[in-house]
Specification:
With about 1400 residues, the chain is an alpha+beta fold. The protein contains 48 helices and 25 strands. Its EC number is 2.3.2.27.
Length: about 1400
């Protein structure tokens, strides 16, 4: 037994930090002792053996051995000690109580069958936290024959509910098992959790979860009896200790609770707990609630055991009746104060005082020593070096005897406490000595309750050390004569000497403890009022000794019993005096759920039911400590209720007065308004500048030239738009065979990027470089996307903030040298600032209301042909140049390679920046403005206006620097009918951006959205401040160009070829006339002849279907323009509920059509649009000479309906993907990669980390991410199922798309479970890719390679030239250089 007991005590010593000098390895040994893999053969076997010993050994001997093994005899004997020693001993006392409670309650190997034990183990794991299936299976204790998993699935389904990962969550949660209510109600055992918990936090987590369950249950009960009884902190729901099934064979380990030694130890625990809560004890904390809960639990088990024994033995009856025997002890060591094992008798026994006990290294040698044993700070303790625990008893004379005093006599001292010092009247309860000097006996005065049969109760008050070590703790003294303690009884006698501290209760004078006869220990006869051993005031806190256990003379005052301590603890935890009463019924529920007063009340009710002496003692102690307290509390509650009602009445009166004052002021205001109704009130319309809040200096101010403020943004290179596919085409599927691989390669030919590259190649083949570059938009691959958190900073504040980031304490994974920083407020990643231009001094030109289209077109022409003044040098212009430099450096290398660095290419790039952001926003809206379900990531709208301002500033700088962009001449060609005859004649032939162009691109082949952005950037004096009527005029003009381009494309495809033979009438008249106009104008050029499409004479022409096709091809233009209008002019986008309503709703929103009812595409055309269209057709016919095939391809593919970009569709079963890819060779190095990774954008197999495929120290995966994803790569690692996301020079582990049946990941395929695709995670990955959210949602980025990407040098030089022009420093020579480029 000693071996098992020692191991368990060593375990708690390690947890208490006694062996801290042995390092962390010693904690590992303690964890191994209770680990799931070894607990069955280690801690469980030790507990079982100790339970057998506890069931068959004498309880007092067993408890003494446990106390000595744990080394807490001094603590339990109330011996004073230093604060550090007390803290260590507190932890060991907690371990001792936990150990004894486990011995009493555990039935792991002492009654539980296999199924029941499995339920207990699963409930213990679930109580500590929701866990995955693999975690539960791994943490189940291993038993012989795999019994721990035999019933695992059935028990798990019985005790838990499976909770699938939430849909739409970013945290990539896994499937968890959540405990059912039956776990908390029947199987949750905190002691078993402590027994299995490797970390103490698991126990605290289980208690927090139990508390949350109880709170939710009480809330659901809504006012039931259990919902309001307990309001304090819940105590652990310790399960009642029941006898083993085969108690005759195995014995009952509960018998250790019927030990006087254990009950005395619990009295010491309760005493320290009660006193430490009231006094400051040199930094020594009071025992925590769960220690007190363990003490109360053991007392409750003792009461249950006595009740069971009383029922089993019919010859034993419970004491009762009107008489009561009062017991008391003094001068006996704490652990020997009880000479009986009956809890009812010991609970009523008063302990006056005990002597201090110290260990002796001779009689109590330690079998082991800690290298961190505390050193005694009190040198006086070293004088007790004798054998055995040093006790200085109050011994009586050997030849003297004590006689029983008759009941009518009350032996009290003349200087006893007067009656007025007690609230209840009469002397305080005291332990008195007989007056006779020759008789040294102590007499306990009865409190008016007669002793039945008038028997004498004899106790030993002078026990020697030999008596202490005896098995029964005998109360007799060696020798022939006894020293007795006489009990006297009288109907009006004094009461027990319970210590009622004035600091603790705050009512009435303090009742003095019982003084002993000074002749017993050689002290002079001192009155109790001045006796140094019993001071009237509480001792002050000391820094080295516990003030609660100060030695007074040669003894430690206690003056308490178990019942008095329980009542005091009940009152302290309840927060009110006299909180317990036997008149209140015990809780009706049998569930062990409640706070401290709940469990203490149950115990007191049990004791009162077992023995009437306990009930009378409870009432007596209450009357002694809290006389008439219930009446006082009732009066206090009535007074508080009256005060509350008075306060409520006054509050209502004040509220009524406030409402009357408000009504009076309202009437006065209305009267004043009526007086001013007839007066003319003129309001000056002034543009109110918007104020911005700087998140660094916390100041609010408008944007200014010399103190600019900017929007914090993150610039990213993107190729999302290039991965869009034609509508109606099949979605991309990851290849799992050679035929599928060939089909996937062909499928990449249909992406938007490939389509625009083919279109640009055809234009480059037949037209001038400057002309075709200004006719398109770029950035489908390698464009720049800007995102913002919505916060603003002053540029001067940002510079100081960036200087602070260059210190060594910079955030991890932050490349400050490349301009990266975290937003000072929300901590999102950013790398640039878009400066905000101030409001213009002069408002934009405002035409008269309802101005004609021709007048508006002339106004736009004047805006484009005006001379742009040189910008003024300011800090704002410098910030504009810095922002454009950042965006140019972020662009992909393909832009420079394909489009060069001429002013035309710069202007196209600047305009394409705005379009790229608009198109990306449209992608996040699922390529439609129809109301959609709430997306995972709502698009932010803060960047468009500042981006247009920066782009417009640089576009005007290009014009100032001398670049010929031809925007004005292009606009004149778009509206020839709106100009005079001379301009109209010149404009019909001026279809080129530059006058020197020999092969200009016809208007019918140019991108209308690109032309729209060109005009919007250059027309206003300060972009984007343009009057709404002029904006509508520009939109209407470009709509006409889009309309005729679409009609021309459908004619070339043969869809509208039969229209030339159809009569134009009805709602379709405009479409038929447009088709006939183009077919007639281009009839001789054969551009609209489609060899693949033949129309038979009997084929019926469906004009409605043709109208739908026209509207479908025009919708992308309307969506982009609607977004621009919403951003620039504010307001909400129209609420569109169905796709059929999208086209007419957007026409009305853009003010292109005002008619109600059904609208057709021709309703949005400007007046005399056919005149301009005929001129455009002549341009196309002229340009088609010599290049009909190439220009025909451009005409047929100019407008395409795109679907949103998606990642490649993955197979549902992971084994199919693994089987095909894990042995495939890399196409670049020809070897099988160790970590084969598949790109989810195009399906290419790359080497992830291997150096074999590195080029210029750049890994193959990083290079592929630049080429395929514009710097963003998404790779599936075949050997680990995980997704690797690469963003530039950083990479992060995203998570796994494949989960098992319980929605768990199987990283590196270690568990070998079948894995299936998680659709929710696949959608989350795609949503983060489309919204460019990887930098914001992932924080665990690592650097993978030096950043070899360089900005476009020629492009950057030209941007710097634009910045020089912004500063007003452009020289004529520099302008000539720009033109020569």
């Amino acid at each position: 037994m000693s071996n098992s007991d020692t191991k368990y005590s060593l375990f708690y010593e390690i947890l208490a930090g006694v062996w801290v000098r042995n390092g962390l390895q010693i904690k590992g040994q303690a964890m191994t002792y209770i680990q799931a893999n070894f607990c069955n053969s280690m801690v469980d076997m030790d507990i079982y053996w100790l339970q057998i010993c506890a069931a068959h050994l004498p309880p007092n001997d067993f408890v003494r051995m446990c106390i000595d093994t744990f080394g807490v005899r001094e603590w339990l004997s109330m011996t004073p000690m230093s604060a550090s020693q007390a803290a260590e001993q507190d932890a060991m006392v907690e371990g001792l109580l936990t150990f004894l409670a486990i011995l009493v309650s555990s039935r792991t190997n002492l009654g539980n069958d296999e199924v029941l034990q499995s339920r207990v183990e699963v409930a213990t794991l679930l109580a500590a936290g929701d866990k995955t299936h693999s975690q539960l299976l791994e943490l189940m204790p291993e038993r012989s024959g795999n019994a721990h998993t035999r019933n695992f699935e059935a028990v798990l389904s019985e005790l838990s509910v499976y909770r699938a990962p939430p849909k739409g969550s970013e945290s990539l949660e896994q499937g968890l098992f959540v405990p059912k209510p039956v776990v908390w109600e029947r199987y949750y055992d905190p002691l078993h959790v402590l027994r299995r918990a490797v970390h103490r936090r698991d126990f605290h987590a289980s208690m927090d979860r139990f508390t949350a369950y109880v709170a939710e249950k009480r809330k659901a009960e809504d006012g039931s009896s259990n919902a309001t009884t307990n309001t304090g902190n819940l105590w652990p729901p310790l399960r009642p200790a029941v006898p083993p099934p085969d108690v005759e064979l195995s014995g009952d380990p509960r018998q250790i609770c019927a030990s006087g030694v254990l009950q005395a130890a619990i009295l010491a625990v309760l005493h320290r707990g009660v006193r430490r809560r009231d006094l400051c004890c040199g930094g020594v904390a009071a025992p925590p609630d769960h220690v007190l809960a363990l003490a109360v639990y053991l007392l409750d088990a003792a009461a249950d055991l006595q009740r069971d024994r009383s029922r089993a033995d019919s010859s034993v009856c419970v004491l009762g009746g009107s008489g009561l025997s009062r017991r008391g002890t003094a001068g006996v060591p704490m652990l020997c104060v009880f000479d009986t094992d009956e809890i009812t008798t010991n609970a009523c026994t008063l302990i006056a005082h005990v002597p201090p006990v110290y260990y002796s290294e001779f009689d109590y040698p330690e079998p082991y020593y800690s290298d961190s044993d505390p050193e005694w700070e009190n040198n006086d303790m070293g004088q007790h070096a004798g054998p055995g625990p040093h006790i200085k008893p109050h011994s009586l004379q050997r030849g003297s005897t004590a006689l029983a005093v008759p009941q009518p006599m009350q032996m009290v001292r003349n200087n006893s406490v007067p009656d007025d010092q007690s609230d209840a009247g009469g002397d305080a309860p005291e332990l008195r000595a007989l007056e006779g000097g020759e008789s040294g006996a102590l007499v306990v005065q009865d409190m008016g309750l007669a002793v039945q049969d008038r028997d004498l109760v004899v106790q030993n008050v002078g026990a020697t050390s030999a008596d202490m070590q005896s098995d029964a703790g005998a109360s007799s003294v060696e020798g022939g004569q006894d020293m007795t303690l006489a009990l006297t009884g009288s109907d009006t006698g004094p009461r027990y000497g319970y210590d009622v501290s004035e600091l603790e209760w705050g009512v009435g004078p303090r009742a003095l403890p019982a003084p002993l006869d000074p002749t017993l220990d050689g002290q002079p006869d001192t009155p109790p009022e001045t006796d140094a051993r019993f001071p009237l005031e509480a001792p002050e806190a000391q820094s080295t000794h516990e003030c609660l256990s100060d030695v007074i003379g040669d003894h430690i005052p206690i003056n308490e019993s178990l019942i008095s301590l329980l009542l005091k603890l009940h009152s302290q935890l309840s927060g009110r005096l006299d909180s317990f009463s036997l008149d209140e019924p015990p809780p009706s529920t049998q569930e062990p759920i409640g706070d401290g007063p709940h469990f203490i009340g149950i115990l007191l009710h049990k004791l009162a039911a077992l023995d009437s002496r306990c009930a009378e003692t409870i009432q007596l102690v209450r009357r002694t400590m809290w006389p008439n307290q219930r009446e006082r509390q009732a009066e206090q509650r009535a007074r508080e209720r009256r005060e509350k009602e008075e306060r409520t009445r006054r509050a209502r009166e004040r509220q009524a007065q406030v409402m009357r004052d408000f009504a009076r002021k309202q009437q006065q205001f209305l009267s004043a308004v009526r007086q001013l109704e007839g007066e003319d009130m003129e309001w000056d319309e002034e543009m109110v500048a918007r104020d911005y809040d700087c998140v660094i200096c916390n100041t609010t101010a408008p944007a200014a030239l010399h103190d600019p403020i900017g929007l914090v943004v993150l610039l990213q290179s993107t190729s999302v738009l290039g991965h869009r596919r034609r509508a109606g085409s099949s979605e991309g599927v990851l290849a799992l065979s050679e035929s599928e691989r060939a089909r996937l390669a062909a499928h990449q030919y249909s992406t938007a990027a490939a389509h625009h590259y083919r279109l640009h190649d055809d234009l480059h083949q037949h037209f001038d470089q400057e002309s075709w570059v200004l006719s398109v938009s770029v950035g489908w691959e390698g464009g720049v996307m800007s995102q913002s958190c919505g916060h603003h900073v002053h540029l001067r504040c940002l510079r100081a903030y960036l200087r602070s980031l260059t210190a060594s304490q910079r955030p991890p994974n932050l490349n400050v040298e490349r301009g990266e920083f975290l937003c000072p407020l929300c901590r999102q990643l950013a790398n640039s600032v878009l400066p905000l231009a101030p409001e213009p001094i002069q408002p934009p030109l405002r035409p008269p209301p309802q101005a004609a289209y021709t007048q508006l077109a002339r106004d736009v022409t004047d805006m484009l042909e005006r001379d742009i003044s040189t910008p003024v040098k300011s800090q704002l212009s410098e910030a504009m140049g810095k922002a454009m430099t950042d965006m140019t450096a972020m662009a992909g290398g393909k832009l420079k390679q394909r489009y060069g660095s001429s002013p035309a290419a710069i202007f196209t790039f600047v305009a394409s920046l705005v379009r790229t952001n608009l198109e990306c926003e449209l992608v996040q809206r699922n390529n439609t403005l129809v109301v959609q379900p709430t997306p995972r990531y709502k698009p932010r709208e803060e960047c468009i206006v500042p981006l247009m301002s920066v782009a417009g500033t640089h576009a005007r700088a290009l014009v100032v620097a001398g670049a010929s962009l031809g925007v004005a001449s292009t606009w004149r060609s778009l509206v020839p009918d709106a100009l005079d005859a001379a301009d109209e004649g010149g404009g019909s032939g001026a279809a080129v951006p530059a006058p020197t162009a020999s092969r200009p691109v016809p208007l019918l082949l140019r991108d209308p959205t690109a032309l729209l952005l060109h005009v919007l950037l250059l027309a206003p004096d300060e972009t984007p401040h343009l009057d709404i009527q002029h904006f509508t005029c520009i939109v209407r003009t470009m709509y006409a160009l889009t309309y005729y381009q679409v009609v021309n494309q459908l004619c070339a495809l043969g869809r509208l070829a039969p229209a030339q033979h159809v009569r134009a009438e009805g709602r379709s008249r405009g479409l038929i006339e447009a088709a006939q106009l183009l077919l007639t104008a281009l009839a001789g050029e054969h551009l609209l002849d489609d060899d693949a499409t033949t129309t038979s004479a009997n084929q019926q022409f469906d004009i409605n279907k043709a109208e739908e096709e026209v509207q479908e091809l025009i919708l992308p233009y309307l969506r982009i323009v609607s977004l621009i209008r919403a951003h620039v002019y504010g307001g909400e986008l129209p609420h569109i509920t169905s796709s059929n309503e999208e086209f007419p709703t957007l026409l009305r929103y853009l003010q292109l059509a005002d008619e109600d009812g059904i609208l057709v595409a021709s309703d949005g055309l400007p007046p005399n649009a056919g005149v301009a269209a005929r001129a455009w057709a002549r341009q196309l016919a002229t340009a088609a000479t010599g290049g009909q095939l190439a220009i025909g391809r451009v005409v047929r593919s100019l407008h395409v309906v795109w679907t949103g970009p998606t990642l490649l569709k993955l197979p549902r079963e992971y084994d199919r993907l693994f089987t095909y890819y894990h042995e495939r060779v890399c196409l670049q190095c020809g070897a099988v990669p160790k970590e084969a990774s598949v790109c989810l954008l195009c399906g290419t197999l790359v080497c992830l980390k291997q150096p074999c495929c590195r080029q210029h120290q750049v890994a193959e995966a990083s290079q592929h991410a630049m080429e395929c994803g514009g710097g963003t790569g998404i790779f599936l690692v075949v050997t680990s199922t995980y997704i690797i996301v690469i963003r530039g020079r950083r990479a992060c582990l995203w998570g796994s798309l494949y989960l098992d049946d319980y929605d768990e990941e199987d990283r590196d395929l270690k568990r070998g479970k079948p894995l299936y695709l998680s659709e929710d995670r696949a959608e989350l990955l795609q949503a983060q890719w489309l919204a460019h959210r990887f930098d914001h949602t992932k924080r665990t980025w690592v650097d993978i390679a030096p950043d070899r990407r360089r900005p476009l040098r020629p492009l950057t030089d030209c941007v710097l030239a634009c910045s020089i022009a912004l500063l007003g420093l452009a020289a004529p020579a520099h302008r000539r250089n720009l033109n020569s480029d």
